[in-house]
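Attaching the record inline, Q. Sequence:
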Amino acid sequence: MNLEQIRTMRGFTQVDLAGILRMNQSGLSKLERRSDMYLSMLRSLIQAMGGRLELRAVFPDEIVEITELDGEGIISDLRELLHQRCQIQPNPDIEYNDFRVESIDESAITFQKLSNQQYLDVPTRRVAEILPATGSQLPVVILKGSLNWSAQKKLWQFRAG
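Structure, as predicted:
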C-alpha cells in the first residue's frame, strides 16, 4: 500500500493528518506522492495515524529487524528535558540562548524562550541530537534547521534546514 491508501484506510483526510503533523494539506499531499523521504518523516506520518514503523532487512535465508533507527532515543532524551532549561543549536546569535522544554509529543516539541516568554514549536523529526549538560553548561538540543527572527511577527521561528 502507498501512504495515501494507508491514510484513507485508517480514516484520515489529508486535512486531518496535516493538522496532527502541524503542516499544511498541500505539504502532506506532496509527501504522499514522494518516492523517497527521510525515515523520520515516514515515522511521523505512521505515528500520526496511530501506528509504529518497523524496519526489516529481508535476505534469502533470514529476516532481520533493524533497530535503533526508530527515533525513540531522541524522544526519550527530549522527555528527560521536559520542564528543564536547555540551549538550542544551530542558531543565529541569539542573545540569552536559554529555553525551557514545555511539551513534547510524537510530532512536535514546544520550547519557551525564557528571556521573553515566547513559545517556539519545532517538529520532533527536526531534532538531530541532544547533548547532555556538562558542568555548568546546559543541555543542548541540536536541530536540523535553524531559528530565525520574524520582524513582522516579532517572534522566533524554526526554519527547516
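Residues 3-66 form a domain with the 434 Repressor (Amino-terminal Domain) fold (CATH 1.10.260.40). The CA atoms of residues 54 and 111 lie 29 Å apart.

More tomorrow.
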